[in-house]
Amino acid sequence: MNILGIETSCDETSVAVVRDGSDVRSSIIASQADLHAKTGGVVPEVASRQHLEQMNAVIAEGLSVAGAAFQDIDAIAVANRPGLLGALLVGVSAAKALAYALRIPLVGVHHIEAHIYANWLVDPRIEFPVVCLVVSGGHTEIFLVRGHGDYQIIGRTRDDAAGEAFDKSARLLGVPYPGGVLIDKMARELHGNTQAVKLPRARLGADSFDFSFSGLKTAVANAVADPANADVAPQDWAASVQEAIVDVLVEKTIRAATANGARRVLLAGGVAANSRLNERMQAACNAAGLPMTAPPPVYCTDNAAMITCAGYYHLLAGRRDTLELDTLSSERLA
Ligand code: ATP
Ligand code: MG
Ligand code: FE
């Protein structure tokens, strides 16, 4: 089954063609990051307009790279929630038009569920139950996944998301938008010292699986203003901030996996692209005797291949949406 997937929930216009849930035949991602760098963040109106301008060309490229024609597509999957409404509407409208014109099934997909399903692109044989750490621009959650579509929330952030912690700290350090990926690169390539700046880890009690990153932001602001840190090199700032975020993510995920009898640990969302998080989580999983899966970076940040993969499992389960399919700015997965 060839599914064409569309993702426009934030600032990536993306189209993918995936066969049978994991054979990615094309994955086109038109990022608006450069456009939004000028404003230091995503301006919703600008994002919607850009999606509109890119949509048809990205669909055409998705088909062309896959060597497919419209007639070769068996179903359409589209991210319809949660996200920026105006941005989602562009993708959903395109998806409806395609499904209607081609007389093929349409299925709406939850963006965060799709981030989780990026793992099934890599390994379609993952065995349940798994614990999945979702770390993205707007979400930080630990899920226990007991089967396809069966999510239980184990922990979540009480304030900022991990991606926000990266991006807001980056801004305080004068690192341009989107900051997370640059912090990772600076810390790694320039061998930043993780101990250079002392920063807090919010554990919220020994038994808690919840996160809190707003205190870190304040601590970074104070540390930047502190004359004692005047000589700290940029890569050492980057490594120290990154370590403070990664420490808590790793510790709580491993504890959640062990406490819930998970057979595997999965990473998902844009921050799952972080090389230090991958390295540290892999080491902790090895020590705990747990296998780990993480999507390659290109399937961690927003992309349509993950939408297509999640859509595949919904279609297998017999789910179909009508042309009434709605867009929602927020909806919890569990
Ligand atoms: P959500 O999925 O919650 O709706 P989003 O779609 O805007 O939010 P994603 O694309 O999943 O977010 O992730 C973007 C986030 O990932 C940004 O905060 C970005 O800084 C962060 N990010 C991307 N790559 C890295 C990296 N290598 N290291 C750390 N953070 C990263
Ligand atoms: Mg983005
Ligand atoms: Fe996302």
Automatic annotation (TrEMBL):
Transmembrane segments: none annotated. Its main location: cytoplasm. Fe cation binds at H111, H115, D302. PROSITE patterns: GLYCOPROTEASE. It catalyses: L-threonylcarbamoyladenylate + adenosine(37) in tRNA = N(6)-L-threonylcarbamoyladenosine(37) in tRNA + AMP + H(+). Its EC number is 2.3.1.234. Substrate binds at V134, V135, S136, G137, G138, D167, G180, D184, N274. Its cofactor is Fe(2+). It is found in: Cytoplasm. Gene3D superfamilies: 3.30.420.40. GO terms for cellular component: cytoplasm. One of its GO terms (molecular function) is tRNA N(6)-L-threonylcarbamoyladenine synthase activity. It is an enzyme of class 2 (transferase). Binds 1 Fe(2+) ion per subunit. Keywords: Acyltransferase, Cytoplasm, Iron, Metal-binding, Transferase, tRNA processing. GO terms for biological process: tRNA threonylcarbamoyladenosine modification. CDD domains: ASKHA_NBD_TsaD_bac. InterPro entries: ATPase_NBD, Gcp-like_dom, KAE1/TsaD, Peptidase_M22_CS, TsaD. PANTHER family: TRNA N6-ADENOSINE THREONYLCARBAMOYLTRANSFERASE, TRNA N6-ADENOSINE THREONYLCARBAMOYLTRANSFERASE, MITOCHONDRIAL. Belongs to the KAE1 / TsaD family. HAMAP family: TsaD. Required for the formation of a threonylcarbamoyl group on adenosine at position 37 (t(6)A37) in tRNAs that read codons beginning with adenine. Is involved in the transfer of the threonylcarbamoyl moiety of threonylcarbamoyl-AMP (TC-AMP) to the N6 group of A37, together with TsaE and TsaB. TsaD likely plays a direct catalytic role in this reaction. This is tRNA N6-adenosine threonylcarbamoyltransferase. It comes from Capsulimonas corticalis.
